Amino acid sequence: MIRRLAAILAATAMLLVLAVPVLAGGWADIVADGQTTTPKEGGSVEIGFRVMQHGVTPAPWETATVHFLNSSTGTTFDVVAKNDDPNGHFVATATIPEAGFWSWQVTLANLESSQVPVRMTVLSKSGAAPAVDPSTLLAAVDRAKDDAIRTVTDQVYVDIGRLETENEAYGSRIDTLNAQVGGLTEERDSLATRVSALEGAGGLPLLALISLALLAGGAAGFTMAWLAGRSPRNDGSAVALTPTPRGADPV
Questions:
Q1: Residue 8 maps to which CATH number?
Q2: Are residues 109 and 141 located together in one domain of the fold?
């Protein structure tokens, strides 16, 4: 029974641990602005987006960082965005160092976010579009796969470590509960042994003692009530007796 209880508690604890991030609401959606211009190499570009906690509530208090990546060459750099509106809108101004196929993605300091990278093409200084090199494209795909695997692996290890810590804490609590149950069981067995010893020594069973005590109390109450009914009344109705000398004729 104890093992089943421990298993149930452990399973419940695991479900609670997994449900905590969802219930706590520690996540946000990144809603990107529409890109209206095509940036050029060496030029600046403004990246606009909104941070919506729970997908509904603006979070202008957040610290948002925009990560830029050139999928062709692997060049990366970061820009911290600034909040410019109470509705949770942020703007990051970046200078793109080279032409190519770029993407940007936002990470937050306090809330979790799983934004899909936003793609954009950066033209050369002369305005020419970057050439598509198959080998460069394949390298970019492989790089994206490696980055995704690394990110997922790192997160999984973090989650596993947290779950192991939680599991140890719940295990310690279960051990404490088991010890308490064991103590109560020992006390019950000891009491049962004492009662059996009294019955084996010729003593009356506990139930019989209780029954006798109840009967004795009832008998005492009945006797007191009977005696109270037999006592003389003081309402003036008692018969007065005239003293008569001993041996005298009462006529």
A1: 2.60.40.10
A2: no
Identify the domain containing residue 71 by its residue range: 2-130
The verdict on 121 and 143 lying in the same domain is no
Residue 53 falls inside a structural domain: yes
Enter the pTM of the model: 0.47
**Could you please report the per-residue DSSP string of 1-61?**
-HHHHHHHHHHHHHHHHHHHHHHHT-BEEEEEPPP-S--BTT-EEEEEEEEEETTTEE-TT
CA distance 174 to 106: 42
Which residue carries 């010893």 as its tokens?
A: 197
Nearest residue to 2 via CA among 134, 174, 148, 117: 174
Tokens 């029954």, located at residue: 211
Average pLDDT value over all residues in the chain: 77
**Whole-angstrom Cα distance, residue 139 to residue 135?**
6
Joined together, the tokens standing for residue 187 give 């006390």
Same domain, 80 and 160: no
Task: Tell me whether residue 167 is exposed, middle or buried, using C-beta atoms within 10 angstroms of its C-beta: 0 to 12, 13 to 18, 19 or more.
Answer: middle
What Cα–Cα distance (Å) separates residue 126 from each residue in 39, 121, 122, 131, 170? Answer: 12, 14, 11, 14, 64
| pLDDT tens figures, 53-100 | 999 999 999 999 999 999 878 899 999 999 999 999 999 999 999 999
Number of residues assigned to the chain: 251
7 and 59 share a domain?
yes
| Same-domain pairing of 7 and 55 | yes
120 backbone dihedrals φ, ψ, rounded to 5°: -155, 145
Among 96, 122, 92, 86, residue whose Cα is nearest residue 105:
92
